[in-house]
Amino acid sequence: MALEIEKKFLLKNDSWKEGSTSEIFYQGYLCSGSGQTVRVRIAGEKAFLTIKGKSVGISRLEFEYPVPLADAQEMLEKLCRKPIIHKCRFFSEYEGFTWEIDEFYGDNQGLVLAEIELKSEEQAFPRPPWLGEEVSGDRRYYNAALCSYPYKEWKNKAK
């Protein structure tokens, strides 16, 4: 069983970019509902099919399998809901932890989120100075939700 435990945050500034590495992602959703999702992702020259279970707190089951790149491209084009998520994922190290920072493009332009994967929900971690408000419990920030309700549609609305 594969368990994903992650927290999501907004960012205060872009000082996290210094020294980070990055990779372009395209991802789409074949289905999502009741908190469960099936996602197709292209990360650089590799492709994956990911199945995620319903979140309980900040944890959920996650199973990921490699698929041929050409198959993933066709699934994104012909099977996935639109808009496709297009983002650059940066990897930033801070005091022994790897942060994944997603800078979104297209219909989600302007949104930047940081994620950290943990070994348990109670695991402590150092907070980088660029880390802002935690949004782990706000479903609007889930990538699957950004397909249905892109950031451009809600960024100027009150929470």
Describe this structure in words.
- This protein is mostly beta strands and 159 residues long.
- The protein is 13% helix and 47% strand.
- The protein is built from 3 helices and 9 strands, in the order βββββαββββαα.
- The protein has helices spanning 69-78, 143-148, 151-154; strands spanning 3-11, 21-33, 36-43, 46-52, 59-67, 85-94, 97-104, 112-117, 131-134.
- Strands 1-5-4-3-2-6-7-8 form an 8-stranded antiparallel β-barrel.
- A hairpin with a 6-residue loop joins strand 4 and strand 5 (59-67).
- The model has no long low-confidence stretch (mean pLDDT 93).
Briefly characterize the structure:
The chain is mainly beta. Helices cover 13% and strands 47% of the residues. A hairpin with a 2-residue loop joins strand 6 and strand 7.
Spell out the blueprint of helices and strands.
Elements lengths: L2 E9 L9 E13 L2 E8 L2 E7 L6 E9 L1 H10 L6 E10 L2 E8 L7 E6 L13 E4 L8 H6 L2 H4 L5
Antiparallel strand pairs: 1-5, 1-8, 1-9, 2-3, 2-6, 3-4, 4-5, 6-7, 7-8
Main sheet: strand order: 1-5-4-3-2-6-7-8
- Tell me the major beta sheet: 8 strands, antiparallel, barrel
Please count the beta strands (DSSP E, at least 2 residues each): 9
Order of helices and strands: EEEEEHEEEEHH
Q: Taking Cα atoms only, what radius of gyration do you get, to the nearest Å?
A: 15 Å
Low-confidence stretches: none
- Summing up helix and strand content along with how strands pair, one would put the structural category as mainly beta
Percent in strands: over 45%
First-to-last CA distance: 35 Å
Question: Helicity level, as a percent range?
Answer: 10-25%
What is the arithmetic mean of pLDDT?
A: 93
Number of helices: 3
